[in-house]
Amino acid sequence: MKFSSTFARCFAVAATLTTLGLSTQSFAHAVLTDPVSRDGADANKTGPCGTAVIKNGPTTYTPGQTITVKWNETVNHPGCFVVEWSKDNNATFTNLTTVKHTTVGATPRPYSTTVTLPAGDCQNCTLRLIQHMLANDTLTCPPATPAAGSLYYSCAQMVSASPDMGAAPVDMTVTEADMTTPPTDDGGSMSTGCNFPGHAATSAGGLMVLAAALGLLRRRR
């Protein structure tokens, strides 16, 4: 009986705390839907990306691409959402945009925003959504120092696929026309050492000089 009465008192205290809104457990959740969350979980409270089992592969993107990020808020809570980017396997993150919380529509409440992904190739990048939970939507968000337990994380794995920026391949196909077109006199070739500017133009001039020399010899005779 002693155990039963102690249990009853603990249950009564827990019920009172819940009624007053003082429970330490929080139920505000958010999950990425596009690009798809790597684990599909909406209750990751351990950074940088939670501890749930990864079941979704990476999303392929083009460096510098502008994309629409989509997610669902599954339980309503004041605060805001921050979309971040990591290029170094979740070691560091940079803010891409911040989206205010709204109370329009029922949960699961869809959100979307447009971001431009950083330039440069990356085979181990992460797009991360953080839900910041605050007391109300009038407070500055994200706060300079988030309270313990006030963040939920949802991450999508990303890999880049850069477009081929090389020069167009040269067509080396030999056609019938190429085989029948007579060669043009270039005044010699590199093998004879006669291929230099102006040499082709001297061929006709050389014949004229030779004819003049023959005429001079005839007159002397």
Element layout with pairings:
Layout: H1 2-19, E1 30-34, E2 59-61, E3 66-73, E4 79-86, E5 94-100, E6 109-116, E7 125-133, E8 151-160, H2 176-180, H3 202-220
Parallel strand pairs: 2-8
Antiparallel strand pairs: 1-3, 3-6, 4-5, 4-7, 7-8
Strand proportion = 25-35%
Indicate the percent of residues in helices: 10-25%
Low-pLDDT residue intervals, each spanning 5 or more residues: 1-27, 165-175, 183-207
State the major sheet: 5 strands, mixed
Q: Per the principal axes of the C-alpha atoms, what is the gross shape?
A: globular
Nearest-integer average pLDDT: 75
Assembly of the depicted chains: single chain
Kindly state the number of beta strands: 8
- The side-by-side strand order for the widest beta sheet comes to 2-8-7-4-5
Cα distance spanning the termini: 154 Å
User: H/E order of the elements?
Assistant: HEEEEEEEEHH
Based on CA atoms alone, the radius of gyration comes out at 38 Å
Query: Structural class of the helix and strand makeup?
Result: alpha+beta
Work out the helix count: 3
Give a summary of the structure in a few sentences:
The chain has helices spanning 2-19, 176-180, 202-220, and strands at residues 30-34, 59-61, 66-73, 79-86, 94-100, 109-116, 125-133, 151-160. With 221 residues, it is an alpha+beta fold. The chain starts with a helix and ends with a helix.
